[in-house]
Design brief:
The chain is mainly alpha-helical. The chain is 69% helix and 11% strand. Helix 1 runs antiparallel to helix 2.
């Protein structure tokens, strides 16, 4: 093989290697970006599924207590009825707040209202949470719940 052919073959091999490296980095960067957005979407989906599953179990338990017969269970039934009403109220409040915040332009939102206290936690899907965003979120929550600002926690995730 002549010297020119060897140089040509070697040059082509280096070019193919360079193209492979560029494609590898490009594809890996796209996969990492997809994984990050999938993880965020998975957080919101997983949180909602877990919350719904736990709430279903709580309602089943409360229903079983409410269904108990006998005068000796009257206090337990009344407590279970009150707890179920509180749970339904909290679920409605969370759904309302999530819907209102999504209507304000946030891509995805999860709201968690405390059952035994007035704490409200909000997780918003956004790249950056500005003062304007936190003010908008807090004002929406305040208008629906009358909870003081020190009981509201606002977090963001990408």
């Amino acid at each position: 093989m002549s010297k020119k052919k060897k140089i040509l073959v070697l040059s082509i091999m280096v070019l193919v290697l360079a193209v492979a490296v560029v494609l590898n980095f490009t594809l890996l960067d796209n996969k990492n970006t997809d994984n990050a957005s999938t993880a965020t979407a998975s957080f919101f989906t997983t949180y909602r599924q877990t919350r719904q599953s736990e709430r279903n179990q709580e309602v089943l338990y409360l229903d079983s207590v409410i269904a108990m017969e006998g005068e000796e269970f009257a206090d337990a039934r009344q407590t279970a009825i009150n707890q179920k009403l509180k749970l339904v109220e909290v679920m409605e409040k969370e759904l309302l707040l999530e819907s209102l915040l999504k209507a304000k332009g946030y891509e995805d939102v999860v709201v968690s209202v405390g059952l035994t206290n007035d704490n409200i936690n909000v997780v918003v899907k956004t790249d950056e949470l500005t003062r304007e965003d936190t003010s908008k979120i807090y004002n929406t929550i305040k208008s629906q719940t009358n909870v003081s600002s020190d009981l509201v926690k606002i977090l963001s995730t990408k």
